[in-house]
Amino acid sequence: MCPVIHSPQSATRNRGLARHRLRAFLTHAVLAAIAAIVAFPFFWMLMTALKSNAEARGTPRLFPAGWPTQWHWGNFLRAWQEMPFATYFLNTFIVAVAVTLAVVVTSLLAGYAFARISFRGKRALFVLFLATMMVPFEVVLVPNFMLVTWLKNALREGMVGLFGPGAEGTAGVLGAFGALIVPWSANVFSIFLVTQFFRQMPQDYYDAAVLDGCGHWQFLWRIGAPMVAPALVTAALFSFLGSWNSLLWPLVVNAPDEAPVIQVALAYMVREEREDFNLLMAASTFTILPVVILYLVAQRRFIEGVTGTGLKG
After folding, report:
1. Cα–Cα distance between 193 and 227 in angstroms, integer?
2. CA separation for the pair 262, 84 (Å, rounded)
3. Mapping DSSP to helix (H, G, I), strand (E, B) and coil, where does residue 254 land?
4. Residue 264 has pLDDT above 50, yes or no
5. Nearest CA to 252 among 152, 151, 179, 169?
6. Residues 199-237: tens digit of each pLDDT
7. Contact 136, 279 (CB under 8 A)
8. What are phi and psi of 270, to 5 degrees?
9. CATH classification (class only), 83-268
10. Does an H or E element contain 299, and which?
């Protein structure tokens, strides 16, 4: 029987394989720990939603005492009936979709202009756009509120002057929705993202399109828009999520009965005279479902847009 001879190369390869396996194990362990930390608030929210209010208001406990002693599945129906959530969902959906469409269109047009059209002052204007990202929202909150209030009053006076006093209610509804949509119809980060995707696009595509008789407008919609689709999906997801979760701006700019949105409804569920934390968590649970479903549907495009690998030169 021949003895097994281990060469130095074989020993080195085995040590390298062992290090690779250890590195992979540690990497997956760290990722699993991070995933557990991220998922725990959602688990806690769901468990609280299934408890009685007395149990939900008790001392927070983890496993195994964190499970409900009795599963109250009816809390979801009670939370839905607590307030007109159907109206709140509809209002929020209208606002979020309108903001998303506006951001996608403005980002596509501005991104193409910054990347492919030469005009005087383009670089300075682009830098100015990026500089606005460093201005906190709280700094411009009051000026934006004053501007939107003036626009709402002007809209109301204009419609009443054209159609009579009966149009005041319609003007109020349009003004309330417009106050939630118009200020967020353009997003600097989305413009920057789409601009970078257009800059990655090979110049040969544009040159070939020009030879075929395409102008800027035809190239943008027939060739450019499909190629930067990952960036547009990413911009759409961020815009939809930001609009869906917006709380401070709707609270500031509109009265409670003017186009109330879902986050405002959740805030009003917590009152001094009544604090049903189990119903609040139940309402929060079905509030996040549309965003989760949207992300799962557009996950692949979203990852391509974030990593910047949607285009290959």
Report:
1. 13
2. 10
3. coil
4. yes
5. 179
6. 888 888 888 888 888 888 888 888 888 888 888 988 999
7. no
8. -95, 105
9. mainly alpha
10. helix 299-307
Q: Each residue of 267-287: pLDDT tens digit?
A: 887 764 567 888 888 999 988
Neighbour count for residue 232 (Cβ, 10 Å): 24
Interatomic CA distance for residues 190 and 133, integer angstroms: 11
Whole-model pTM: value is: 0.81
* Tens of pLDDT, residues 29-78: 999 999 999 888 888 888 888 888 888 777 666 555 567 888 888 889 98
> How would DSSP label each residue in 165-211?
GGGHHHHHHHHHHHHHHGGGS--HHHHHHHHHHHHHS-HHHHHHHHH
Q: Encoding tokens for residue 257?
A: 């009965």
Q: Is residue 311 very low, low, confident or very high in pLDDT (cuts 50, 70, 90)?
A: very low
Q: Which pair of tokens denotes residue 252?
A: 């500031």
Q: How many CA atoms lie within 13 A of 270 on its CB side?
A: 12
Q: What ranges do the domains of the chain cover?
A: 83-268
Following DSSP, what letter does each residue of 97-160 receive, concatenated?
Answer: HHHHHHHHHHHHHHHHHHHH---TTHHHHHHHHHHGGGS-HHHHHHHHHHHHHHHHHHHHHHHH
| Size of the chain, expressed as the number of residues it contains | 313
Residue 275 phi, psi (nearest 5): -130, 90
